[in-house]
Automatic annotation (TrEMBL), chain A:
Organism of derivation: Sphingorhabdus profundilacus
Cytochrome c assembly protein domain mapped to chain residues: 88-294
A GO biological process held by the record: cytochrome complex assembly
Family: Belongs to the CcmF/CycK/Ccl1/NrfE/CcsA family.
UniProt-recorded name of the protein: Heme lyase CcmF/NrfE family subunit
């Protein structure tokens, strides 16, 4: 009964979306009779999606095995939290989550947005409904989450054990909210082009949505990276896997958009460019979903791959992006040129930011699609970290150089010599750090050295925009910007330290034997079997010593049943200056009583994710400032930041 | 960043990029995925090698043995490889139909190879032992079993990846005939 309710709600929600779309089409020929229905329909659509998603969650909660999706993804023995997370830990459920967030965003625009004119608002809701309609069709015709299974099995198949992890239970929904949040920017952009309202009011209305989506993407990527780091047991934190790239590309576009939308809001410049970024950001989000779900690129993220579904999402994605860029090509010419500015100005700095981010985006996009392009020529190529690291690192470092100076420049025009002391100071810090590392630590690559040097300079430069301000009267978005830029410095510091100074030891130890990694002496004390809810494991007890301090680590090699799979659970020892990372493997066949133990010392590696969270926190502070701002005189606006 | 009259074509650029990526993606979906890694050596002469016998009672194998004017099959196998056991009857069938087959045993021990031949029969004329997988790598073979069609002049004509099944037997015989 619950399943049928959920399905009915989904059909009704699709009908509401259709109503909004028709209302929107009449809007193109002036105000139609259906126009007043658009807003209420958006609200009802959102509510129906909540009903539908809640129904599916209930089915997973009670483990209703007569529902195909529950039977094939859940199990009666599974811990409750993973039963609930199972709602979105599969294709159908995650698509329902996707469309629900899409609808709720539409409802939120209908409810909250007061800054833009009614016509543009209605057009935005209609575009949002148009996008939703495609995904409703996808769910209802090819991925029905409420399909029944006759006869019902007695226990269910279970969830991939790698996914039975609390961090991962919340990683996909976080990313999805980010992806889908960008749909709002997309809808705003298309609507503003259609009604010809590309200006500061539109930018201010769009900005909180971009900011919100971007915060979720930032948290999602940071969390995903940490999850891969501790769960996969490879010791790496970013693998340039197609699915990782699929989440990075929308983030890069959203980051660029976040900055350019501020220029549009504050200075009424970069109009066409901002619109294009809004379209690109959501196109990248859809491409991300498509790549993940279609299996056209080989990835460690082995999702259930289905070419029919892949074609469906591909068709949707191509339709929405082509239509949007068609509108762009034909309508953006009618948008007037924005306000001019000098190269040395805040706008100039943001343009530099946008160019560097776009170049990185292009590099990642080319690298991700290259194997596919090569295949059309009959070649088989896989593009991996050597390309991505070498190609993106120099641009990322240039981006950091621009970031040292950009935020302290004035809008419209500025003079570099006004900032000469800061410039000399940052140069001196970077040079001193770089030379010191190069001189005293042999064998460190050039990128880690530059990364460390620039991140130290940026850690100071980030705070400069607060200089000379009365802190209590400083708008929250300025604080947000400072925290986010400081977070970036922290994160880059972690990346550079990890890539330049990590130490690794791979060894086979019998109980009682020791190995050394960096300053750590690690002894394999004991190996014993342990049993969990739905797995058994061998667990190594390692005693790690550094000086007179002693710590115990317990890495495991787990064997799950239902479904059968082997995973390694790394043991991590976190110190303020880095992490000791230990992995144990099942013994080799020759079985001489030794266990394969892999040890890493990763200096300051935690800074990577800590910095990422600071970046997201900066975004959150900024968003608070945007949502609850006091009415101000227009003059204050010239200090507004992203 | 605005759109001057002379730059209107730029506005169509994003649409063109979408079309290009869409084309790639459609290709990726439509064309079936082939995860095999084919050898770059197909069409070239065999590399120089001379392998000792893999077990007692059979001869070793060098590239000269394969360039004596007669087209042959070269089977890469190992006694520890399960698909190799599965394809043994079809190698026998090929031999009965007149194919001459040489082999390279990968990371194997003489007694294991002998046991393998005793159990599954010996369709091979010569068996070279490649303990370091050095010759296998030179041939561009990435696993066991694989079967190459070698021309009479020692040219690698065809590479079959994976075990030989019933439906592959006529195909391989046809390739040998073409090589005459």
């Amino acid at each position: 009964m619950i399943a049928e309710t959920g399905l009915a709600a989904l059909w009704l929600a699709a009908a509401m979306a259709l109503l909004q779309l028709v209302g929107g089409l009449t809007l193109l020929r002036g105000e139609g009779k259906l126009t007043p229905l658009i807003k209420p329909a958006a609200l009802v659509q959102g509510a129906l999606c909540v009903v539908s998603f809640a129904s599916l969650m209930w089915l997973f909660y009670v483990t209703d095995l007569s529902v195909l999706l529950v039977a094939s993804n859940s199990h009666i023995d599974k811990p409750l939290i993973f039963k609930l997370a199972g709602t979105w830990g599969n294709h159908e459920g995650s698509m329902l989550l996707w469309v629900s967030v899409l609808s709720l965003s539409g409802a939120a625009i209908a409810l909250l947005e007061k800054r833009i004119d009614t016509r543009t608002l209605n057009a935005t809701l209609a575009v949002q409904a148009f996008v939703a309609l495609g995904f409703f069709a996808f769910l209802l015709f090819s991925s029905n989450p409420f399909e029944r299974l006759v006869p019902a099995p007695v226990e269910g198949a279970g969830l991939n054990p790698l996914l039975q992890d609390i961090g991962l239970a919340f990683h996909p929904p976080t990313l999805y909210i980010g992806y889908v949040g960008l749909s709002v920017a997309f809808s705003f952009a298309v609507a503003a082009m259609l009604t010809g309202q590309v200006g500061p009011a539109f930018a201010r209305a769009m900005r909180p949505w971009v900011l919100g989506a971007w915060i979720f993407l930032t948290v999602g990527i940071t969390a995903g990276s940490y999850w891969a780091y501790y769960e996969l047991g490879w010791g790496g934190w970013w693998f340039w896997d197609p699915v990782e790239n699929a989440s990075l590309m929308p983030w890069l576009a959203a980051t660029a958009l976040l900055h350019s939308v501020s220029v549009l809001a504050t200075r009424n410049a970069l109009r066409a460019w901002t619109i294009m970024l809004a379209l690109v950001a959501f196109a990248m989000s859809m491409a991300g979903t498509f790549l993940v779900r279609s299996g056209i690129l080989t990835s460690v993220h082995a999702f259930a791959v289905d070419p029919e579904r892949g074609s469906f999402i591909l068709a949707l994605m191509l339709m929405y992006t082509s239509l949007a860029f068609l509108v762009f090509a034909t309508r953006i010419g009618t948008v007037k040129q924005g306000e001019p500015f000098q190269i040395v100005s805040r706008e100039g700095g943001i343009v530099a930011n946008n160019i560097f981010l776009s170049v990185i985006l292009a590099i990642v996009l080319i690298g991700t699609l290259y194997p596919l392009a090569a295949e059309t020529m009959g070649d088989k190529i896989s593009v991996g970290p050597p390309y991505f690291n070498k190609a993106t690192a120099p641009i990322a470092l240039l981006l950091m150089v621009a970031l040292l100076l950009g935020p302290m420049l004035r809008w419209r025009r500025d003079e570099l010599k006004r900032h000469k002391y800061w410039l000399v100071g940052f140069f001196a810090i970077s040079l001193w750090t770089g030379v010191a590392i190069w001189r005293f630590v042999p064998g460190v690559g050039v990128f880690p050295i530059l990364g460390l040097a620039l991140s130290l300079a940026l850690a100071i430069a980030a705070w400069v925009p607060l200089k000379g301000r009365k802190l209590l009267r400083t708008p929250l978005p300025v604080f947000g910007m400072v925290v986010a830029h400081f977070g970036l410095a922290v994160s880059v510091f972690g990346m550079a330290a990890e890539s330049g100074f990590s130490r690794e030891t791979l060894t086979a130890l019998a109980p009682g034997e020791s190995a050394k990694v960096a300053d750590w002496q690690v002894k394999l004390d004991d190996v014993r079997p342990v049993v969990g809810d739905n797995w058994v494991a061998i667990e190594g007890q390692l005693i790690a010593r550094n000086g007179d301090k002693k710590f115990i680590l317990r890495p495991q090699s787990r064997q799950f049943y239902r479904p059968e799979q082997q995973t390694s659970e790394a043991a991590l020892l976190t110190r303020w200056n880095g992490q000791l990372y230990a992995v144990i493997a099942q013994p080799d066949e020759n079985g001489d009583g030794r266990w394969q133990v892999r040890l890493w010392w990763k200096p300051f590696v935690t800074f990577i994710w800590f910095g990422g969270l600071l970046v997201a926190l900066g975004g959150a502070i900024s968003l608070l400032g945007r949502m609850f701002r006091r009415p101000k005189k227009p003059a204050v606006n010239k200090w507004a930041q992203a | 960043m605005g759109a001057g009259m002379n730059r209107t074509w730029l506005l169509w650029l994003p649409l063109a990029v979408v079309a290009f990526i869409g084309g790639l993606a459609i290709y990726g979906l439509v064309v079936p995925k082939d995860d095999m890694v084919h050898s770059a050596m197909v069409g070239r002469k065999l590399p120089e090698f001379a392998l000792p016998p893999a077990t007692v009672g059979v001869a070793g194998l060098s590239n000269r043995d394969l360039a004596d004017g007669k087209p042959r099959l070269l089977n890469i196998f190992a006694s520890w490889c399960i698909p190799c056991k599965a394809e043994a009857p079809y190698l026998e069938a090929l031999k009965k139909s007149g194919a001459e087959i040489d082999a390279i045993a990968i990371r194997d021990k003489p007694e294991d190879v002998a046991a393998f031949l005793a159990e599954f029969g010996n369709p091979f004329r010569r068996i070279g032992s490649d303990n370091e997988m050095a010759v296998q790598l030179k041939l561009g073979s990435s696993g066991v079993p694989e079967t190459y069609v070698i021309g009479g002049d020692g040219t690698i004509l065809y590479q079959h990846i994976g075990d030989i099944r019933a439906e592959h037997v006529p195909m391989l015989l046809e390739k040998l005939r073409e090589a005459q």
